[in-house]
Design goal:
single chain; alpha+beta; 4-stranded antiparallel β-sheet; 8 helices; 4 strands
Length: about 230
């Protein structure tokens, strides 16, 4: 055991042919630190209701793990193919909730690869630059649609046509609207109409809902942001 530790500390041997104990500790420590920074940036810039503490912690674990994998592989092609074969039996069944999350997964993987291949300066600069870019896009609300779409769900009693029942109300409160679907609910007593709508500037959500309830007999009306709803 003592000989094994001695060989790890003092350089390449048959047992530790590509990295020393100090290189291992640096790769682990730096990848953990940089991936933690990324995780906090992810938390600070996350929008919506799908934030997951588990996913955020997993990104840190993933980055550190990739760093160790890159150290183990080194320039050995045989090890690389062996690792691919071993990982091919792993199956991940959790769906990624947001496409933005995929970007963070690749981000921490890139950090882990840089640390594992001893490009420490590259890893640090890359992390700082990409985190600054993410913060800038978040603060400036870049690429946001100026016409925020909403999803309007309305229950209609028998006799009301979802295509024409709210024409006057929609003309006064909405800039545009599209009927997405119509289905029977409550054992056929009501129809549920789902619209994609864009409110006029200055239009009130509450006033729109109140006007619709006057027409549909005070039945259910729900108005939500489109990104928070699955149609």
């Amino acid at each position: 055991m003592g000989q094994f530790i001695e060989q790890l500390i003092h350089g390449p041997t048959e047992i530790a042919s590509y990295f020393t104990l100090w290189e291992l500790l640096v790769a682990l420590g730096l990848s953990f630190l940089l991936c933690t920074v990324v995780a906090y940036v992810y938390r600070a810039t996350h929008r919506g209701v799908s934030y997951s503490q588990s996913f955020t912690a997993t990104t840190v674990i993933l980055g550190v793990t990739v760093a160790v994998i890159m150290l183990i592989i080194g320039s050995n092609i045989a090890r690389a193919f062996t690792l691919v074969g071993a990982l091919s039996i792993v199956r991940f069944r959790n769906a990624v909730k947001e496409t933005r999350d995929v970007g963070f997964i690749f981000l921490v993987m890139a950090i882990g690869m840089a640390c594992g291949t001893r490009f420490y300066g590259t890893a640090i600069i890359f992390t700082l630059v990409i985190c600054a870019i993410i913060y800038a896009m978040f603060a400036l609300n870049m690429f946001a649609n100026p016409q925020a779409q909403r999803i309007l769900r309305v229950h209609l009693p028998e006799g009301l046509d979802p295509h024409t029942a709210f024409d006057d109300i929609f003309y006064r409160y909405l800039q545009s609207h599209t009927l997405l679907s119509v289905e029977s609910v409550r054992q056929g007593l009501f129809l549920e109409a789902v619209y994609s709508v864009v409110l006029r500037k200055g239009a009130s959500d509450r006033e729109l809902i109140d006007e619709i309830r006057k027409v549909n007999g005070n039945a259910k009306v729900a108005l939500t942001h489109a990104e928070n709803v699955n149609i």
